[in-house]
């Protein structure tokens, strides 16, 4: 019942919360998350999953980034260890710490207000994903502090759906990610 109540409140209040910054801070605080800064502050968001593709990021989520760049994070590995829909036949992207790995993706510059709106579209604050700040770098090697979303995943990876992995592959190509990363994505088997 508590979960259903929170979901109902979230659907009803998210549009209001996005317009009234003190309410957004309060909403985050109830979930144990901090919401720092001002709504018009600019921040970088690192997308490594479906948000790399314009159909997901710009069309479905209605995001209008101020700028984008190809980039990577070091010390993380791309995983498909979350349960998607249909259950057992789709595994969304996630990342986990791995000091010997890297993850390539798209860095989007957004306002904090837009980041809160994006977070809400991903279920944040909530039970699945949570925001983390990390050191990223663009394809030219310039350091960028960025936020991304991670979840506590299963110990083993599944396979993404064909539709989902195609979004990642096409998004990576469209944003000029390096050939070795595109080859890596091309080699990921999809669920049957």
Question: What report would you give on this structure?
Answer:
The chain is an alpha+beta fold. 34% of the residues lie in helices and 29% in strands. The protein has a 5-stranded mixed barrel with strand order 1-3-2-4-5. β4 and β5 form a beta hairpin. The N and C termini lie far apart (35 Å). The model has no long low-confidence stretch (mean pLDDT 89).
- Mean pLDDT figure: 89
In the CATH hierarchy, what is the architecture at level 2?
Roll
Q: What characteristic shape results from the CA principal axes?
A: globular
Q: How far from one another are the termini?
A: 35 Å
CATH homology-level superfamily? Gamma-glutamyl cyclotransferase-like
List the helices and strands and how they pair.
Layout: H1 2-19, H2 21-30, E1 42-47, H3 54-60, E2 67-79, E3 94-111, H4 112-121, E4 129-138, E5 143-151, H5 162-174, H6 179-186
Parallel strand pairs: 1-5
Antiparallel strand pairs: 1-3, 2-3, 2-4, 4-5
Helix pairs in contact: 1-2, 5-6
């Amino acid at each position: 019942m508590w979960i259903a109540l929170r979901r109902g409140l979230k659907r009803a209040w998210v549009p209001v919360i996005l317009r009234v910054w003190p309410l957004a801070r309060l909403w985050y605080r109830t979930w144990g998350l901090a919401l720092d800064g001002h709504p018009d502050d600019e921040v970088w968001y690192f997308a490594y999953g479906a948000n790399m593709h314009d159909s997901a990021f710009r069309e479905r989520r209605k995001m209008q980034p101020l700028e984008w760049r190809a980039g990577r994070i070091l010390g993380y590995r791309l995983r498909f260890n979350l349960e998607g829909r249909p259950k057992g036949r789709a595994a969304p992207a996630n990342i986990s710490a791995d000091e010997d790995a890297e993850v390539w993706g798209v860095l989007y510059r957004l306002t904090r207000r837009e980041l809160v709106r994006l977070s809400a579209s991903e279920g944040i604050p909530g039970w699945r994903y949570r925001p983390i700040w990390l050191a990223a770098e663009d394809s030219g090697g310039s350091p960028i502090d960025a936020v991304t979303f991670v979840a506590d995943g299963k110990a083993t990876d599944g396979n993404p759906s064909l539709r989902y992995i195609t979004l990642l592959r096409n998004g990576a190509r469209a944003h000029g990610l390096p050939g070795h990363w595109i080859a890596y994505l091309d080699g990921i088997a999809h669920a049957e």
